[in-house]
Amino acid sequence: MTLLNDYRFLEDSASAIDNAARDKLKRAGGLRNNLPNWLYRLKVEAKLRGTTLNIFPACFTKRKENSTWYSHKDRTIYWTVSWVFPQANISYNDKKISENVPLSSALAKYISPKHSNVEVQQQLMFYQAAGMKAVKVLLQAEFVSSRKTRYYELDVSESLKENLRGKTIVEYPVLYVVLSNHASGYSVIDPDNGSKSETESSEESESDSEDSESDSEDTESDKKDMVSDKKDAESDNKDMESDKKDTVSDKKDTVRDKKDTVSDNKDTESDNKDAESDNKDAESDNKDAESDNKDAVSANKDTESDNKDAESDNKDAESDKKDTESDNKDAVSDNKDAVSDNKNAENDDKDAESDDKDAESDKKDAESDNKAAESDNKAAESDNKDAESDNKDAESDNKDSESDNNDSESDNKDAESDKKDAESDNKDMVSQSSSKPVAEVNKDEVM
């Protein structure tokens, strides 16, 4: 199958080479004077607009900086433009400026304070103070014979396309923005008669003749380039013929590969015999594998049990996940509360500092109170000891009182007995007194 794919690939390659050899456009190649198609197209579109665009080799810095391109979609050239401000000794590069944009609109981001940033305002303050009407935009004239550098004055109200019409540009336009009161120091070409302004008209006529000679030289150069392109096309055709020969050689190699394939098939038969022997060995291995399968069945059962446990764990994990989500929501709420608590804590810290000061004062008072309490405790201990002694005395007194009470009761009983005896004596005395004579009584009274 791989050999067949390779053979088809070679056939398709040969067909593509043959089609390229028959196609005039492809045979001409994708280069014009060693330029890529898109860059050659850009030169053609510029030429159609009356602008001669010269391109440097790829190794030049200006070629690397140039990002000018032609848009097929809206049929517009987007230029890279370099703005040079000699009176500020600074320059800026803009990319993708449409050829249809008025020059004043493209320049407004540097001249108008409303459209420029702070950095540009500081660097171009003199230009912005002068305004758009007090500046001139100059384009250096390329390939013009003169001892001095010459410039074209551009109309800021016209588009970039109109300003570049009839001009020669190297890679991209470099525009000099000059204050009007400094414009006299630049040699400006008069667009009406094609001569330099007033002072060097004779040099302009010489320059015109030199320009015509230069144009004729350019024409001869273009003819040479056409001859060179023709030779390149012939060289391409020779290369295509060589490719055809290589394709034939590849076909021969393919036939040779087929023979090798037959030999390989024989080797394959031998390999098949070896494979039969290997199959027998494989049967023995299968028996061993059956034993291993039984062990695997047992292991599978264990795995099923583990899977069930895993499913249970997954359910628990889902439940934990939901709990985690709920906890996260609570955590968000807690964070908000924590922020509020932090604020309250700050206030509490302040109150705590005040409380600490009060606590220190209370601590000192407590120490003083503790000392007084210790003194009171010692006095209380002494009072307790006295109270215990008093209690013992009171107990002894109680016992004495009880003994006295017992004695009092005995005395009372004796007193009652004496009282009864006295009453009895009184009765006896009364009885005796009633029986005695009055004289005896008086004697007794006298006695």
From TrEMBL:
Annotated source species: Limulus polyphemus
Sequence segments annotated as region (Disordered): 186-447
Record bears the keyword Amino-acid biosynthesis: no
Residue ranges with Basic and acidic residues bias: 221-347, 360-402, 410-428
A Pfam family per the record: BCD1
Name of the protein described by the UniProt record: Uncharacterized protein LOC106468492
Biased segments, Acidic residues type: 200-220, 348-359
Phosphoprotein listed as a keyword: yes
UniProt keyword terms in alphabetical order: Phosphoprotein
Ranges for domain BCD1 alpha/beta: 40-187
